[in-house]
């Protein structure tokens, strides 16, 4: 149970940092940050492998790069639809 809570915290922080890097808010607040952190971790791990230190089950550098990619893609899609 504690590892799950730790994963939620790390995922949320990764999503928030990725949003700050791009200067865009993640829709959904904290829940959105957690989702972006989890999806970004998956994307980053698929693209870069398990690169960097692992905290809460997330390879930090890969997950952060993946989260930035996810937010950039989401922002691009939303702009195109508006």
Automatic annotation (TrEMBL):
GO terms for cellular component: plasma membrane. It is a multi-pass membrane protein. InterPro entries: Transgly_assoc. Keywords: Cell membrane, Membrane, Transmembrane, Transmembrane helix. It is found in: Cell membrane. PANTHER family: UPF0410 PROTEIN YMGE (PTHR33884). This is Transglycosylase-associated protein. It comes from Enterococcus termitis. The lineage of its organism: Bacteria, Bacillati, Bacillota, Bacilli, Lactobacillales.
């Amino acid at each position: 149970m504690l590892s799950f809570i730790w994963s939620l915290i790390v995922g949320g922080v990764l999503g928030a940092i990725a949003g700050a890097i791009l200067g865009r808010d993640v829709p959904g607040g904290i829940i959105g940050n957690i989702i972006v952190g989890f999806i970004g971790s998956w994307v980053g791990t698929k693209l870069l492998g398990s690169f960097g230190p692992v905290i809460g089950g997330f390879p930090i550098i890969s997950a952060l790069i993946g989260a930035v990619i996810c937010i950039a893609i989401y922002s691009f899609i939303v702009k195109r639809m508006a």
